[in-house]
Amino acid sequence: MATSGNNVRLPEDLLAELEAQAHSRGLTPDELAVETLRAGLRQQSWQAKAARWQEYGKASGYTADDVPEVVRQWRNEQHGR
After folding, report:
1. pLDDT band at 1 (very low <50, low <70, confident <90, very high)
2. Phi, psi at 74, each rounded to 5°
3. Which residue of 21, 32, 34, 49 shows the fewest CB atoms closer than 10 Å?
4. Rounded to 5 degrees, what angle do the CA atoms 45, 49, 51 make?
5. Going by C-beta distance under 8 Å and a sequence separation of 6 or more, which residues neighbour residue 57?
6. Residues in contact with 15: Cβ distance below 8 Å, sequence separation at least 6, in sequence order
7. H/E/C letters for each residue in the chain?
């Protein structure tokens, strides 16, 4: 749900770049800003998840070389169910 009255202050050079890129893509600056913010927030979310999983991996004691064997064992366990 969009709301009106939201303001974000941008440096002039960034605003000019936003307007130029929006124009070249046939979008309004608002549309491009929303699209870009969504993509950036999604990327940050993935990076945070990847960092957490990397920490879980380190804590497990397994290395990348262990992964094929761990997967093979898990598949064998699943097949036996």
Report:
1. low
2. -60, -45
3. 49
4. 115
5. none
6. 29
7. CCCCCCCCCCCHHHHHHHHHHHHHHCCCHHHHHHHHHHHHHHHHHHHHHHHHHHHHHHHHCCCHHHHHHHHHHHHHHHHCC
